[in-house]
Design brief:
GO cellular component, one term (chains A, B): cytoplasm
CATH architecture of the largest domain in chain A: Up-down Bundle
Shape of chain A: globular
Largest interface: A-B, 49 and 49 residues
Strand order of the largest sheet of chain A: 1-2
Protein name (chains A, B): Maleylacetoacetate isomerase
Strand content of chain A: under 5%
CATH class of the largest domain in chain A: Mainly Alpha
Oligomer: homodimer
GO molecular function, one term (chains A, B): glutathione transferase activity
EC number (chains A, B): 5.2.1.2
Organism (chains A, B): Nitrosococcus oceani (strain ATCC 19707 / BCRC 17464 / JCM 30415 / NCIMB 11848 / C-107)
Number of domains of chain A: 2
Largest sheet of chain A: 2 strands, antiparallel
Distance between the termini of chain A: 21 Å
Radius of gyration of chain A: 17 Å
CATH topology of the largest domain in chain A: Glutathione S-transferase Yfyf (Class Pi), Chain A, domain 2
């Protein structure tokens, strides 16, 4: 979401919701009023609250069309959306904090088992993404075409996290190349966790 | 995907991919050529293969606009998309077959533990959905407005599965009402698993 706002040059104020502080600030009444699901992120635009990362990004793209985050051709849009969904549906939901907490408490998984789980879904997803990208021409700077799309916005934070979790990424040269190219862009750099005001 | 095709009155041929036959037909070379990820569904339209349910539905909606699967107002579109994403990202990915297989083999989870896991994520998701729907007016026939949208297309199969897994749904009167209303529509009925040619 921050990457999309930066790419479009939309000014915004961040309110940080600490997932591990005070038993999870996302579960406190103040945040639940915004998003009853208690998950981040939520975008507040005037009186409207929008939840779910991909719905927020689609909203920003419709409301502030320049620069676009999807190609114009219908089939290309479908392809780019499918890459974004692959990350958003098949990787991210399995590897986030609430799943980790469930597996640790109810599933009695050790830290090593969590790491194995994390790497398994990263690998499954990245293998599929790499194959998709390899089957389409000229995907070395961005997932598609010559500007960042919603696919890159979804991909880059996952590669960032995979590095943090010491995942081996040698088998994914296209993903790694896209990550490197996006990482030099200001919109991506300024959205990185370590650049946020509350970074500790 | 079948519901979207039916709602739009688009003729199609189904090729059934048996997830449990021959070690998973979705992992056989014939299917991997279509979708390297080895996950269903995939839509083949002429020479184009599109993967990921929500990307397929968005494609169908752009290529065959009538009847629409999203409202026209930008904020309403965002809301409907957020409901669809809540199901597609926060419920479905956690409860599908590949996760069940991983937990059973690598996680040594019993069948009872799988059922508890399944119900946990259904409840988390449905509680959030019910709260979202309750905060918006007149969501008793469909998730939004007076015709089925992508939100209903995502929701109905999840409620169907929750029934199969004996989840208690008394706390979700709006979800249950929407499910009942959609279930009488031919487009939803004909997409139900038991109506498919390969149903056993």
């Amino acid at each position: 979401m921050r990457i999309a706002l930066n790419l479009k040059g939309i000014g915004y104020h961040s309110r940080f919701v600490h997932l591990l502080r005070r038993g999870g600030e996302q579960r406190q009444p103040a945040y639940l009023k915004l998003n009853p699901q208690g998950l981040v992120p939520a975008l507040v635009d005037g009186g409207t609250v929008i939840t779910q990362s991909l719905a927020i990004i689609a909203y920003l793209d419709e409301r502030y069309p320049q620069p676009p985050l999807l190609p114009t051709d219908v089939k290309a849009r479908a392809y780019v959306r499918s890459l974004a969904q692959l990350v958003a549906c098949d990787i991210h939901p399995l590897n986030n904090l609430r799943v980790r907490q469930y597996l640790a408490t109810c599933g009695r998984h050790s830290e090593a088992e969590w790491q194995a789980w994390y790497r398994h879904w990263i690998q499954e997803g990245f293998k599929a993404l790499e194959a998709q990208l390899a089957a389409h021409p000229a995907a070395d700077r961005y997932c598609y075409g010559n500007y960042p799309t919603v696919a890159d916005i979804c991909l880059v934070p996952q590669v960032y996290n995979a590095h943090r979790f010491n995942c081996q990424l040698d088998d994914y040269p296209l993903l790694s190349s896209i990550y490197r190219h996006c990482s030099v862009l200001k919109a991506f750099q300024e959205a990185a966790p370590e650049c946020q005001l509350d970074a500790s």
